[in-house]
Amino acid sequence: MVLKAIIFDVDGTLAETEELHRKAFNKAFNKWKLGWYWDRSIYEELLKISGGKERISHFSGLFPDQNKTLLKREIDLIHQDKTKYYSEFLIRNKLLPKPGVASVIKKAKQRNIKLAIATATSLINVETLVKSIWRVQVEEIFSVVATGDEVSKNKPSAEIYNLVLEKLQTKARDCIAIEDSLNGLISAKGAGLKTIIVPSFYTKGEDFSLAEAVLTSLLNFEF
Ligand code: XBP
Ligand code: MG
């Protein structure tokens, strides 16, 4: 196989971002006086729903008797605030890329292997994260980006990976996906991609038996 592209997931794969997402959700819930607080164990469970809006909608529907169900318009506004807080946290908290990410990027560039992104989060979050980690625009590193706001069904649907392949104009058999979660793995495999898993803080207990390999970090990734 001649490897033509490496497709990175973002949250939990490029960096351990989920604690900042969680903080941002809670800050938005506070502003909207919802009386909701997502602690780590609730959040671990809720991460089974990919995408922030989808996660809020799912949680709001869990308590029909308590009248907590939100309208789509309310979810959009709450999520807008969450995104703003998340950007602020990213700028203030300087996250590092996960071990081995930078060296995979460097080696891929030297070998003319394209780099792409397939994420459940939004483009603005990807741009802010890449700027905060590497101080460059996203397109300086990743030639193709596909985000959750471009698809009708988020991960574990294969839509996002099919979209990234379409943008890359490359066959699935010539690419590899790097993921941290079961939803991401199901999504990538659904598009026919070989998938390497590096579990993250919240996903380490998930079942990755579908994956081509499960690595403790990308420092051990040979390609
Ligand atoms: C993981 C996610 C994301 C974030 C929240 O995405 O499910 O939804 O938790 O981000 P990835 P938004 O595919 O990168 O692992 O609130 O911006 O949706
Ligand atoms: Mg992820």
Number of helical stretches of at least 4 residues = 9
SSE succession: EHHHHHEHHEHEHEE
Outline the biggest β-sheet: 6 strands, parallel
Strand arrangement within the widest β-sheet reads 3-2-1-4-5-6
Which percent range describes the beta-strand content? Answer: 5-15%
Contiguous uncertain segments of 5+ residues: none
Gyration radius from CA atoms, angstroms: 17 Å
Shape: globular
Give the integer mean of the pLDDT values. 96
Write up what this structure looks like:
By secondary structure, this protein is an alpha/beta fold. It contains 9 helices and 6 strands. The chain has helices at 18-31, 40-46, 52-60, 72-93, 101-110, 123-134, 138-141, 159-168, 182-190, and strands spanning 5-8, 114-119, 144-147, 175-179, 194-197, 213-214. Strands 3-2-1-4-5-6 form a 6-stranded parallel beta sheet. Helix 9 (182-190) links the parallel strand 4 and strand 5. Helix 1 (18-31) packs across helix 4, helix 3 crosses helix 4 (72-93) and helix 4 packs parallel to helix 6. The mean pLDDT is 96. The site of xylulose-1,5-bisphosphate has 20 residues, from helix 1 and helix 4.
Short description:
The protein has 223 residues and is α/β, with parallel strands linked by helices.
Chart the SSEs and their pairings:
Elements: E1 5-8, H1 18-31, H2 40-46, H3 52-60, H4 72-93, H5 101-110, E2 114-119, H6 123-134, H7 138-141, E3 144-147, H8 159-168, E4 175-179, H9 182-190, E5 194-197, E6 213-214
Parallel strand pairs: 1-2, 1-4, 2-3, 4-5, 5-6
Helix pairs in contact: 1-4, 3-4, 4-6
Xylulose-1,5-bisphosphate (XBP) binds next to helix 1 and helix 4.
